[in-house]
Amino acid sequence: MYNELPAKEQQEVEQALLHDADLATTCADLLQAQRTLNGLRTAPSARSTEAILQYARSFMRKN
Q: Which domain of life does the protein's organism represent (predicted)?
């Protein structure tokens, strides 16, 4: 998934994927999940940030 295996072990995994349909399906599902997760937003939108700042400012004004 993350290309972290040594070359020999990677070849063994690739061979296993070629000969085990269930393993190949599971691997494909995991790769799809990885791509989906990598595409998710990792920061709040500008609108959310502004709402939080406005909320915080409301407390600053009361003091």
A: Bacteria
Alpha-carbon distance of 55 to 58, in angstroms, equals 5
User: Quick one: CA torsion of 21, 25, 27, 31, rounded to 10 degrees?
Assistant: 150
Whole-number Å distance between alpha carbons of 9 and 55: 53
Per-residue pLDDT of the chain (63 residues; tens, 9 = 90+): 788 999 999 999 999 999 999 999 999 999 999 999 998 878 899 999 999 999 999 988 765
